[in-house]
Amino acid sequence: MSERDGENRGEAWTTLDKDLNRISQVEQATFHVARPMVGLGVALAFIIVAGLFAALIFGGQPGSAVVIAAAALGAYMAINIGANDVANNMGPAVGANALTMGGAIVIAALFESAGALLAGGDVVSTISKGIIDPTAVADTQVFIWAMMAALLSSALWVNLATWIGAPVSTTHSVVGGVMGAGISAAGFATVNWGSMGLIAASWVISPLLGGLIAAGFLWFIKARIMYQPDKIAAARRWVPVLIGIMMGVFATYLAIKGVKKIIHIELPAALMIGAAFGALSYAASAPIVRHKAQGLENRNKSLKVLFGLPLVISAALLSFAHGANDVANAVGPLAAIVHANAVGEFAGKVNIPHWVMVIGAFGISFGLILFGPKLIRMVGSQITKLNPMRAYCVALSAAITVIVASWLGLPVSSTHIAVGGVFGVGFFREWYHEKRLDQAARSKKSQRIAAEERRRRKLVRRSHFMTIVAAWIITVPAAALLSAAVFWGLSHLAG
């Protein structure tokens, strides 16, 4: 073989390698583009299976077509809950690197489903927290169309919010859907504007209370642990206390919200249960924290080790409580349709059939697995930078705020509370950073930073803040307008 032939063959192999590499890149690009289509395909398959499942149960019965369509819409709503609402519980833990995305999805799917199936309420309000007067919607068929419109419009709105990257309240979306359909069916007089006023107030109260409580705990951790001369000794003293508070709060939270299917517990008894669990958790965690703290360097980075596991536990408990409490609200319109179709009349409260809760639980898991990572990343890392200590404050504030709101009788949104906690932590860090800069400048330890440079160093991304707040404000009106339009279309098609 001549030298020339060898060179030609070498060039040919090089060319072939380049071509194969290009083919490989095309395959990778095709796979990347196809992944969203796979998610949509799986979601559509689940919606169809939910409809077929309802057909097996109600096939041949009068009005079965309506129930089958409602089951498909309920599955669509459940998928959107998993894609949007669940991110608020898992986002801080993922953003703080206490959990991987895969671990968060597995834990959330398991605990959300367990909460829905084991502790989900037996009874749900069909008119979603008394938003409209049942007697104003006298005709059963009109009521069924109103609930269908509420279900579809709230699911569409949550889907749109997930697409633009805004965590919104699914409960508020359902409230807006019910209100819009009620107004379209029977006029503005049918709406209980007092209840709507409380819900509107919760738009402000929920995030503010969540943010203030989260900021308060972060201030405590900074003052008592992070800025102490011996950080590890301070952590050995205070981390068990914080764990005891966390477990006590979650025991109270679950006693009020999570086990109502099994037993009804009043707030004073729930507080006593929480105090007992808190004391036991403190006693159990103190030796564990002491053991884990051995050999740690006296710096803030070492403290992350001590907060990692409590943060994971808090995220799992939040998911369980969310599954127990919020899923029933979301599938309420579906349960109302099933009841009205079977009995021939509607009621203010109805039992939730087991198959409806199964659709809700599995739909949440599918939505979380297929579409949840986008909002998890948004809440966990794109609003502000979180570490285990900050994320722990967010999780703790979420549980405390729900208990306080239950005591005050305020309708609050778990989404608004959790995201408000993230904002509270971020804005507290900004304030604390500015305060330290001013102190350093007054003591001549550093030069004063210009106002423009300070604005550039903000620790909360203002674009995300404005997008999320705008989405919160327009959730109820947007879902109501969508619902009114859908109800008008359905009633005209039926007529």
UniProtKB/TrEMBL annotation:
It is found in: Membrane. This is Phosphate transporter. Belongs to the inorganic phosphate transporter (PiT) (TC 2.A.20) family. It is a multi-pass membrane protein. The keyword GTP-binding does not apply. One of its GO terms (biological process) is phosphate ion transmembrane transport. It comes from the Bacteria. Keywords: Membrane, Phosphate transport, Transmembrane, Transmembrane helix, Transport. InterPro entries: Phos_transporter. It comes from Celeribacter neptunius. The lineage of its organism: Bacteria, Pseudomonadati, Pseudomonadota, Alphaproteobacteria, Rhodobacterales.
